[in-house]
Design goal:
Order of helices and strands: HHEEEHEHEHHEHEEHEHEEHEHHHH
Strand content: 15-25%
CATH class of one domain: Alpha Beta
Strand order of the largest sheet: 9-8-7-6-10-11-12
Number of helices: 14
Oligomer: single chain
CATH architecture of one domain: 3-Layer(aba) Sandwich
Distance between the termini: 45 Å
Structural class: alpha/beta
CATH superfamily of one domain: NAD(P)-binding Rossmann-like Domain
Shape: globular
Largest sheet: 7 strands, mixed
């Protein structure tokens, strides 16, 4: 994951303020009345915990974590848990709100939630991470549940993290609550196809966008910022469609090669050394140069606010596919749209993960598991339909794809809110 220039003190606006600005742009298109704006732009519940963890040295360290439920009108809260030094309540609120819209734009029966702990996993042992995870799960246990709030992996968390959470809550309950989290290992109730689902969603939405702008993917050039799970699978699956990966990066650095990079060779390099940096016969470039590399498709799959008003004018990609959440600021959105770039927004582009998480949850509740072909086919169907719904809305209202995606999502949540009514 790219971590350059991510100090919140350097950000012009908070991440949540950016999310609300995106919301208001779509609410204006819908002529949403003020009361409904207040309901849908506010987080339902914000839960902050400070908890001790015994480190390997024997010393006690106190960590701060958050779980935010943005909106639960259409179903249980759904959203990942991230472990990162820059986690803040502001960031988690923004991510929870984007999860509401992500679930709504794909028409899943979920609301939005998100969680995170401010820590540096790269400096912690596996034992320390397990103790931190189990204690955090215990602290947020009043909120999470198979029918109330279902976490999943996010930045610096994975299937093992989810297994620890599931086991911790199950120990409290006295029985195995397999549906408490998604993104679990297959052996304890995970779904086939979940690992690559977010990257597959990036590929599917890119494929659909290319059809609409007449871009031939055979030979199309791709730049991937953030060669983690999402970045790798996006690169790998786009490569299978004939695309050429010409630059990639992670927290260790960025590289480029005009003749093309093989996704599997890059993954082997990362697995053996911890970074794509140092890959043979490549040019070493900066994060800024990576984003500004001339290409057909740019996949920002790192963290928030990577494409800003400061660098957007120098980005030339025809299609920008947001594998990460919130990588593009509103100011950059306008610059890129005016230049003619097609931005596939995060709530659509990286929704593959939550779609297959939904499939996993359904399988857990029914105790009936699907074949991978069924998972992939259903994911493709939902994202293809969702992309075309968003594209049609963008044409109908003459707005960019992000605003169109938000319009579709907000309209669904507002409609559900009106039907349910305001209690009491």
């Amino acid at each position: 994951m790219i971590q350059e220039n991510l100090d919140p003190s350097n950000m012009k606006d908070s991440v949540f303020a950016m999310a609300v600005e995106q919301f208001n742009a779509a609410a204006d298109v819908l002529n949403l009345e003020e009361g409904m704006r207040q309901v849908l732009s506010s987080c339902k519940r914000e839960f902050t915990v400070n908890f001790p963890v015994k480190m390997d040295s024997g010393k006690i360290q106190v960590f701060t974590g958050h779980r935010v439920q943005h909106n639960m009108t259409r179903g249980p809260a759904k959203g990942g848990i991230r472990f990162h030094p820059d986690v803040s309540l502001d960031e988690v609120k923004a991510l929870a709100s984007w999860m509401t819209w992500k679930c709504a734009v794909t028409n899943l029966p979920y609301g939005g939630g998100k969680g995170g702990v401010t820590c540096n996993p790269k400096s912690m042992s596996s034992g320390e991470m397990e103790r931190l995870t189990r204690r955090f799960a215990t602290e947020i246990s009043p909120l999470i549940g198979s029918y109330s709030d279902i976490p999943a992996p996010d930045v610096n968390t994975d299937g093992q993290t989810m297994a620890w959470i599931m086991d911790t809550i199950s120990m409290h309950k006295g029985f195995t609550e397999v549906g408490i989290v998604t993104g679990k290992p297959i052996e304890i109730g995970g779904s086939l196809g979940r690992t690559e689902a977010t990257g597959r969603g990036v590929m599917i939405t890119t494929r659909e966008a290319a059809k609409h702008i007449g871009l031939n993917l055979n030979g199309a050039t791709v730049v991937v910022q953030g060669f983690g799970n999402v970045g790798y699978w996006a690169a790998h699956l786009l490569q299978e469609l004939g695309c050429k990966i010409i630059a990639a990066s992670d927290s260790g650095g960025a590289i480029s090669r005009t003749s093309g990079l093989d996704s599997n060779e890059l993954l082997a390099q990362k697995n053996s050394t911890g970074s794509v940096s140092g890959f043979a016969n490549c040019d070493v470039i900066t994060n800024e140069e990576l984003l500004e590399t001339s290409c057909d498709i740019l996949v920002p799959a790192a963290l928030e606010q990577q494409i800003t008003g400061n660098n957007a004018s120098r980005i030339s990609a025809k299609i920008i596919v947001e594998g990460a959440n919130g990588p593009t600021t509103p100011e950059a959105d306008k610059i890129l749209t005016d230049k003619g770039s097609l931005i596939i927004p995060d709530i659509l582009a990286n929704a593959g993960g939550v779609v297959v998480s939904y499939f996993e949850w359904v399988q857990n509740l029914q105790r009936f598991f699907w074949e991978k072909e069924a998972v992939d086919k259903s994911l493709d169907s939902i994202l293809t339909r969702s992309f075309n719904e968003v594209f049609n809305t963008s044409q109908h209202y003459n707005v960019d794809m992000r605003t169109a995606a938000m319009v579709n999502a907000i309209d669904r949540v507002a409609t559900a809110t009106n039907i349910r009514g305001i209690y009491p």
